[in-house]
Amino acid sequence: MTSNPPNLRPDLAPKARLGDRPRAGQPNIGMVSLGCPKALVDSERILTRLRAEGYGVSPDYQGADAVIVNTCGFLDSAKAESLEAIGEALRENGKVIVTGCLGAEPDYIREHHPRILAVTGPHQYEQVLDAVHAAVPPDPDPFVDLLPAAGVKLTPRHFSYVKISEGCNHKCRFCIIPDMRGRLQSRPAHAVLREAEKLVEAGVRELLVISQDTSAYGLDRKYDSNLWKNREVRSHITDLSRELGQLGAWVRLHYVYPYPHVRELIPLMADPDNGLLPYLDIPFQHAHPDTLKRMARPAAAARTLDEIAAWRAICPDITLRSTFIVGYPGETEAEFQTLLDWMDEAQLDRVGCFQYENVAGARSNELPDHVPDEIKQERWDRFMEKAQAISAAKLAAKVGTTCEVIVDEVDGEAATCRTKSDAPEIDGNLFIDEGFEGLAAGDIVTVEVDEAGEYDLWGRILKR
Q1: What the protein does (predicted)?
Q2: Residues 68 and 203 in one domain
Q3: Residue 268's closest CA among 244, 288, 290, 292?
């Protein structure tokens, strides 16, 4: 039995799960996938292409003919973790191909690990395949190497990430993702919907929609229309969400900026006949206008409170998750206190928080008045104390209510589940520790909540 959040790091994807053992004589590739869910989707695409070419997927270093390390370069601490993972793969296997966000800095990687076979940047799928072909030639068996309809998945069978766009048009001073992944590039609506439909047909019960900026989806395509099920569907987050919600699975939106058109999504979330969950993951980052201005982000915290109130008026059950940065360069005690006061007013349901870090290439590095580490830690502690108290009060109010939950895992102690308010890995759990025999991952059941903690709930089954 596990409990969330493990470390309040909302940028981390679930640990990749590798299953099937390769056939005898099959060339085998290992995969280490680091970083966010968007990187996990890239890993799934790479492995799907390799499986289609006859490669097996090894769950360990010893069984792999070569290892791909999909890296993260979002923070300096993430870069260090990526370098450590590359070093481990070299020690344990010796034949290593590096890709992902940190791959945009090949000289930096080779300076630390000159023995790697190849380096490619993020979403450079063809270059990764070329590197694998050079290291381990393919040897397909068309009678045995059958590819699952949903492709190779690194998440549990019952939920899946669906990436709707790549890149970002924002120029936040603390972020280098646009430099690594480029400007916004949206997928056509019909392509997203076709992928999502295949996933649901293959047994996926929850679709997690991700991108760098989900609410900007389709802007680069001028919201063009595509034919889907004999009707025109715009490449727009409202149209896409409406259609995804008709596929028969839960649909959860991540990384949504609070643009005005986001309010068009709220009636869909309030519609019991649509699968779009009443859940918005919005990276507010801060609340003081001066801090937001130094971040080069929209400085409209007061209007954001009005938007939140309007969303809750339409959909009272909506769950709001966000992430914040404390200790940003120049952050004064007064600015930090404004953030705490804003939290009291906003009463967000789920909150993650980072202490500011310099990242090589970020413009924020050059800002004056960097906050000392001990003050960043002290502010993080105060922020999380407040967020934890808000979470505990909100969960306590759920005791005695009923809700639907999706089962993630069943062991000898309990069934670990999630409500519609909880995303995998980053939010809380609901545990069923009596009468859970016979439940399986992916089941959706109705429970009554009978106990609450700071982040997790406990309940008993009412209806299967």
Answers
A1: Catalyzes the methylthiolation of an aspartic acid residue of ribosomal protein uS12.
A2: no
A3: 244
pLDDT digits (tens, 9 = 90+) for 260-282: 899 999 999 999 999 999 999 99
Please, which residues have CB within 8 angstroms of residue 412's CB and are 6 or more apart in sequence?
none
User: Contact 445/457 with Cβ under 8 angstroms?
Assistant: no
- The tokens describing 288, both together, are 């003081």
Distance (Å, whole) CA 144 – CA 83: 36
Residues 90 and 226 in one domain: no
Give the tens place of pLDDT for each residue, 66-97: 999 999 877 778 888 999 999 999 999 999 99
Same-domain check for residues 130 and 195: no
Q: Which residue shows structure tokens 């270093």? A: 61
Q: Name the binding residues.
A: 36, 72, 101, 168, 172, 175
Domain end position, chosen among 361, 396, 431:
396
Residue of 156, 5, 12 whose CA lies nearest to 81: 12
Q: For tokens 């009596």, what's the residue?
A: 434
What residues make up the domain containing 74?
28-135
Residues counted in the chain: 464
Whole-model pTM? 0.78
Residues 6+ away with beta carbon under 8 Å from 130:
none
Whether residue 22 has pLDDT greater than 60: no
- Alpha carbon distance 257, 285 (integer Å): 11
**CB–CB of 32/40 below 8 Å?**
no
Q: Give me the DSSP letters along 272-287.
A: TTS-EEEEEE---B--
Q: Mean pLDDT, to the nearest integer, of 151-178?
A: 82
For residues 248 and 272, membership in a common domain is answered with yes
Beta strands in 48-176 (DSSP E): 56-58, 66-71, 96-100, 118-119, 159-163, 165-166
Question: Which amino acids are annotated as binding site for [4Fe-4S] cluster, given as ranges?
Answer: 36, 72, 101, 168, 172, 175
H/E stretch holding 393 reads helix 373-396
Q: Give the mean pLDDT of 407-425.
A: 93
φ, ψ at 251 (rounded to 5°):
-130, 120
Name which of 327, 324, 326 is nearest 370 in CA terms: 327
CATH classification at residue 48: 3.40.50.12160
